[in-house]
Design brief:
By secondary structure, the chain is of the alpha+beta class. Helix content is 21%, strand content 46%. It contains four helices and 20 strands. The strands form two sheets. Strands 3-4-5-6-7-8-9-10-13-14-15-16-17-18-19-20 form a 16-stranded antiparallel barrel. A two-stranded antiparallel sheet has the order 11-12. Strand 11 and strand 12 form a beta hairpin. It is elongated, with a radius of gyration of 44 Å. The termini are far apart.
Length: 463
């Protein structure tokens, strides 16, 4: 009995202790396993960290390479041509180099016109016509040096017709050589740009006596505190715009001009058709202060043979009308312009000698003459202007001028032109103009007169 009791007590004490020992052994094993897992995770993490560090190093290396490339590209672009030009808009889109040696201004001018033309009862047909009168593309500026000027102008409606292309060496404004094609330095009416006219178009006097454009070489310049004096003189082909000389009979032409008033604008417009001081540009109106300008011109072409060359204007038409095969041609002009901020007036006189060089035919020298007078007043300052013009031409038909076999020819032509202009931009760049022309054509030998009534409306944009 006692032995049985001892065994029970021993079982009660030993069995729990063995369970505790077994549990402790299991916990130790579990801890070891967890430590192993931790070590495995640390090793794996260390590998991932090392991989990430390698990627970071590669990216940093690539970044430094990219930085070097960017610096290299920036250095290359710093000297590239597109980085050395600056662009702006001022009376045209202008590109200019940083060093000032290159400059180009690009401008476009368009004129859209409506014309209604009706002659007298003997010619009852009335024509109505919409027309793109002018579409000009113009480039001007300087190249290589600020004093080496250039200008190119093309007119599209005539089939990409070259109007102007010239170079001017404006190193000294007192004396500037020019070569190329541009307006012959002669009459004020023709030298006034068609963009700056007071009416829709120029007068009948200019159509008859103007010399238009020609190719040649000239010297021009200006003197005085505000370039009050200006001059231009040169020699030209004598065959008009885009024409070639087929003989050695050249056109010689020159113009002198003097102006006073107009303020203290000392800028010299060396790159215009007729180079002159800023106050005395050939614009009939828009004066900042009272301005007075007077000018004179002369041109001659000895031995003009119209079968070989045809100057711009109507000289050869007149010679054909008179039956002249060849003639010494000389023409003169004088003009005056006075303008104030609200009022302007100008006039011009033209004379033309045609001395025939005919074999076996005795003919006298024909002297044709004409004048043009116009005035305008602003009813709204720099906005709305009303103007009027009177033009008159006397064709020489005196005894000895016309050979016996020549029939009726023009004797007198005159025109009256009222007009109104709305200057949208308060200058000539953007405007609407209306005018009416009454033209009388009178002929010799009692031929009937021809009257013409022309209404014109025109929109211009110059930018």
């Amino acid at each position: 009995m006692k032995t049985l009791l001892k065994l029970l007590v021993l079982a009660v004490v030993v069995l729990p202790l063995s369970g505790i020992q077994a549990n402790a052994q299991s916990t130790k094993q579990e801890i070891e396993e967890l430590k192993q897992q931790i070590n495995a995770i640390q090793q794996q993490s260390q590998q991932q960290i090392e991989q990430l560090q390698k990627k970071v190093e590669m990216l940093e290396t690539a970044r430094e390479v990219d930085k070097e490339r960017i610096v290299t590209v920036e250095e290359e672009n710093r000297d590239a041509w597109w980085q050395t030009f600056k662009a702006k808009y001022h009376d045209g889109l202008t590109f200019e180099s940083d060093n000032g040696n290159f400059k180009m201004r690009f401008r476009i001018r368009g004129q859209f016109r409506l014309t209604v033309d009706q002659q007298d009862d003997r010619h009852p047909e009335t024509s109505t016509n919409f027309k793109v009168q002018r579409l000009r593309f113009k480039w001007d500026g300087h190249a290589f040096k600020p004093w080496f000027l250039y200008l190119v102008q093309i007119n599209i409606p005539d089939g990409a017709d070259l109007r102007d292309m010239y170079f001017t060496a404006a190193y000294d404004n007192n004396i500037m050589p020019r070569v190329g094609q541009w307006k012959v330095p002669f009459g004020r009416d023709e030298l006034t740009s068609s963009s700056a006219l007071q009416f829709v178009d120029r007068s009948i006097v200019n159509e008859e006596f103007g010399l238009g454009r020609d190719r040649g070489a000239a010297v021009m310049g200006g003197f005085g505190p505000n370039y009050n004096f200006s001059y231009s003189g040169g020699v030209f082909n004598g065959d008009g715009r885009n024409g070639n000389s087929l003989d050695s009979n050249m056109l010689y032409a020159g113009r002198l001009q003097f102006g006073v008033g107009g303020g203290d604008n000392k800028k010299f417009k060396a790159n215009s058709s007729y180079a002159t001081g800023g106050n005395y540009g050939l614009v009939p109106n828009f004066a900042e202060a009272p301005t007075f300008v007077v000018g004179a011109g002369i041109a001659t072409l000895p031995g003009l043979n119209c079968t070989r060359k045809d100057p711009d204007g109507s000289t050869c038409d007149r010679m054909e009308e008179l039956g002249y095969e060849r003639a010494n041609f000389t023409t003169i002009t004088g003009d005056v312009n006075f303008k104030m901020p609200i009022f302007d007036i100008q006039g011009g006189y033209y004379g033309r000698w045609l001395n025939p060089q005919q074999n076996g035919i005795d003919q006298d020298t024909a002297y044709d003459q004409g004048f043009n007078a116009q005035a305008g007043v602003f009813v709204l300052p720099r906005t709305v202007e009303i103007a009027g013009r009177f033009s008159w031409i006397d064709f020489d038909t005196s005894g000895g001028i016309l050979p016996p076999d020549v029939g009726s020819v023009r004797d007198t032509q005159w025109a009256v032109t009222p007009g109104i202009s709305y200057y949208i931009s308060h200058d000539h760049r953007w405007k609407v103009q209306l005018d009416y022309n009454y033209i009388r054509n009178e002929y010799t030998q009692d031929a009937p007169d021809v009257d013409e009534n022309i209404f014109r409306a025109q929109l211009q944009a110059y930018f």
